[in-house]
Amino acid sequence: MADFIDYLFGIDDSWFSYLVAALVAAVLILHVVAVGALLFIWMERKISGRIQDRLGPTRVGGKFGWLQTLADGIKLIAKEDITPDLADRFLFKIAPYIGLAASYAAFIALPFADGVVGQHLNTAVFFVLAVLGLEVFSVILAGYASGSKWSLFGAMREAAQVVSYEVPLGMCVVVPVMICGTMNLTTIANMQSGFFTNWLVFNDPFTFLTAIIYFTCATAGVNRAPFDLAEAESELVAGFHTEYSGLRWSLFFMAEYSSMFIVSALASILFFGGPHGPIPIADILGLLPTENLGSGSAQAFNENADGFFAAMNVQVMIARVLGVGNLILKGVIGVTLMMWIRWSFPRLRIDQVMTMCLKYCVPLAAIGFIGATAWQYLDLPTGNALVDAPRYEHHEMWTDGLSKNESDVEAEAEAVESVEEVQTPHANDKVTDASSVTVKTVPVSVEKGGDQ
Amino acid sequence: MATSKIDDPRVIEFDVRTDEMLINMGPQHPSTHGVLRLVLRSDGEVVSDVEPHLGYLHRCAEKIGENLTARQWIPYTDRMDYLAAMNMNLGWSLVIEKLIEYDLPERGRHLRVIISEMGRIASHLVAMGTYGLDLGSFTPFLYGFRERERILNLFEEVCGARLTYSYLTPGGATADLPSGWTDKCREFLTQFKEVIPELHTLLTTNSIFVSRTAGIGVMSARMAIDYGCTGPVLRGSGVYHDLRFHGEERYTEMYDGYVFDVICADPETGKYPESNYEFHGDKLDYPEIPRQAILGDCWHRFYVRMLEVVQSVRLIEQAIEKYEATSGDWGKPIKLIQKLPAKEAYMETEAPRGQMGFYVVGNGDSIPWRVRARSSSFCNLSVTAPLCQGILLADIPAIVGSLDVVMGEIDR
Asked: Which of B30, B63, B297, B232 has its CA nearest to residue A232?
């Protein structure tokens, strides 16, 4: 993006380009968050309505009540912003902003398709998880600052729950990182292109297990039922947001819904192919030419303008739009699944939530991790190798790469931490190798500003 | 560790301890079923002591009853257990009939069975739905209400009201069932039977539901009797007692010739009576009792209600046939200013929430000299404090919900 601005204004590597690029990306992502929340709240109402044998909203906005959330949003903006007398005013007011900012910031590193990303990060997985983990602060602050005992209970529960569930969540996320040898989400997604057998969830039985554990822990991590103890209305009135009203209250909800989308989108990138659909339509139709594709990388337009326009041709744009559509669809499916669970099950008790985390999720995540490591180390057949499907990608390339560096593989088996340390630098090398060697793949640009 | 001795009592900074928190749960709390107020003494999530406070819905119903005639007080009984107003009407009607020694025609007897058992289903559906709500599951609540709405539609056709019916009166009922009503009732029963397994799937056998309710709030049979618990709460503890079988003759004769089971687990074997639930000619078994469930816990209380609904369906099916087979008078209401003899009468009936008793003393006038109601929910609620000791905060809605109290009946 910054390169594009550079090109437009005929300037070179200016702070101005970066500023404009950042602003454009921020505004675009803000729309994803806001519109996403509007859509998801409406969806939740319709879905819960269908599950409960009623209609849900039907009137506002003509058909299907699709403007209901907007109407509610206007109502919430018009409401009085009340701060209780007993509240710690500053913390009380700042808490919802922290929550929204955390889930909003996580979108920066989330690639919607190859090249459609706020900022390329080589440590995108780590960034998303770390920033999303900050959301717990808003809940704790809200609960603590409200000056209400019920809110305090909600905050206590949230703190205990989210911090515990980050352990198995992290262990699950490490598995795709280890298999792909990179923390770059774009690279992880592109390694799963081709038919759906390439998806990491079908890589081996252990990744399948890991994907399920990941989804469970993610549901707990974003406080969705049956883990929504922090806002358990039958016990804690409304939990941490009991004392909030109006816009501040709605910020909590926007944060919740966008976090739901983030964890679902992350699941789809890590396990379900990300922007790559089950059938590589773009490849089959030849929308992604296997040669002459600079992917809009920096060299392409810096060297000559024609290269840039070649990269920006209509076919590639269509392929990217398809990719964005795929990712959003998968994210929405994940969110729908969470909604389905929420409206079907009772809520767990706090001790059962902790038991589930410590007695089931952590050991199962550990088994998944060790199993997946062993699978890679022993070079057992992946799901892709079992199916006789035409290949549009060299899916096996990372296993090839791994067998070259057996010392690295052993190091992985030792400890989780060492994987991140050892793999990341070597992954960078390998990915650049891959983009130059495998001609058939869409080359993956990992340089700074290599996005569109 | 709890009592570490410090020599100088002024030195408190080394005495690190946590304080107990006193929390008000209600009367505006979403899961205290109306205006119950519980004062919790809690240490973090663990609640050491619960004290229920009553009286937020007190409307002097008994005193009003001493200023109105027997029939005039019927609307006030509606507002006691407003979720099963028909059964409240029935209890008052029966005690007045006992006082004035009035015998109901047979058709009216069957009509009352149909109406009161329908009321029982409607009430248990709310109990079931709100219990799901207490445990954080919203959907069964609406499923329950969907079915309840159908019953209310039927009641509306009968008496014009959907909540406070004032339909059964001393002497019989304000009107006979409208023509064609029994067919609609049959239709309702047929489709309601399909829904029962759905409700079992959503709650009774749901593993999260089981883990939230099984082994929680265990009440022994001895304790249930000691505290005067009645209805499903008593039978959930394995006490074989149902006034429709064991009550006064004036009440049990209403059920003469009917075949149904008292839903109560055998304390020896822990088994419930065989399923008599048939649908499309197939016998459907009751769901299995989960391994974790202990007789007298929240799960059993819930289960008893679920199975009682099936028994009510059985009763209504029989009652409709008997009602159609008999002809003649259904029992006209007594006069509005019926003189009550200078005697006293007390009678308990099996309302959905337990034994609802009414006591009335006449003095030769049409206005009774003394009116008193014995509330089943009041006694059932009294076990809250002993059951809620040393439990987690989330168990309080589970226990209070399983007792299924209605504050209108407790406070009157």
From this structure: B30
